[in-house]
């Protein structure tokens, strides 16, 4: 992966042609086709540069939340990690179903990240899968390689106009605590989207830990606490 400085920003990419595209994004030399998500936590939009469409994403929580911003003093940041992880999964492991990530941008102030952006493949019109089959096969393959999604639900799998399945909205992280994350992925799909699905893995200590965390987060008092906390946090940042 290459890194170049430009106007105080760090540009990350594997192929040289994306350096100029990242510069054009910083210079606002693009057309916004559609804003897909605009919140305090993230910004996602379809843009066009030189008659080609891309998706850009800012993960604003990385520098919006004080505790996470401080941690970036000691970390490379989401842009670098995601770019490297997805590149490895696509190129080394051959999982081309991952939506490609072409490059990224971040900026640091006083050693902490205060801006980030990912330049991603535009996979076409979003058509969410209606059946589990292909998603389950693909996710089990990814788990077998020691990686996980982090939010395994139908909205993060897109069926393109050509009929191919694409994985989106993931950092492609590696599992480090047994297969806890594999169980958490599967429980997310089962509990949130497909309660009738047959559970694919043997239930071990990591399964019960993941189940406890899922049920804990779904507790109405915990959910209300999170809503209040987020509301107060957003109010303080206005």
TrEMBL record:
The keyword Heme does not apply. Pfam families: WaaY. GO terms for molecular function: transferase activity. SUPFAM superfamilies: Protein kinase-like (PK-like). Keywords: Transferase. It comes from the Bacteria. The keyword Cell wall biogenesis/degradation does not apply. This is Heptose II phosphotransferase. It comes from Cetobacterium ceti.
């Amino acid at each position: 992966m290459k890194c170049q400085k430009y106007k105080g920003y760090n540009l990350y990419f594997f192929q040289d042609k994306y350096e100029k595209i990242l510069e054009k994004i910083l210079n606002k030399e693009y057309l916004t086709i559609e804003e897909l998500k605009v919140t305090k936590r993230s910004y996602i939009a379809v843009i066009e540069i030189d008659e080609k469409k891309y998706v850009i994403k800012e993960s604003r929580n990385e520098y919006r939340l004080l505790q996470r911003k401080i941690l970036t003093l000691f970390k490379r940041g989401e842009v670098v990690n995601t770019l490297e992880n997805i590149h490895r999964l696509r190129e080394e492991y051959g999982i081309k179903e991952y939506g490609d990530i072409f490059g990224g941008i971040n900026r640091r102030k006083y050693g902490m990240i205060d801006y980030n952006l990912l330049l991603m493949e535009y996979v076409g019109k979003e058509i969410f899968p209606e059946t589990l089959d292909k998603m389950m096969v693909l996710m089990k393959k990814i788990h077998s390689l020691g990686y996980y999604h982090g939010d395994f639900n139908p909205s993060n799998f897109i069926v393109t106009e050509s009929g191919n399945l694409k994985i989106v909205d993931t950092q492609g992280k590696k599992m480090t605590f047994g297969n806890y994350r594999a169980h958490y992925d599967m429980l997310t799909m089962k509990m949130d989207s497909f309660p009738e699905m047959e559970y694919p893995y043997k239930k071990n200590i990591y399964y019960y830990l993941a189940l406890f965390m899922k049920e804990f987060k779904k507790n109405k008092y915990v959910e209300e606490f999170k809503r209040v906390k987020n509301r107060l946090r957003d109010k303080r940042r206005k």
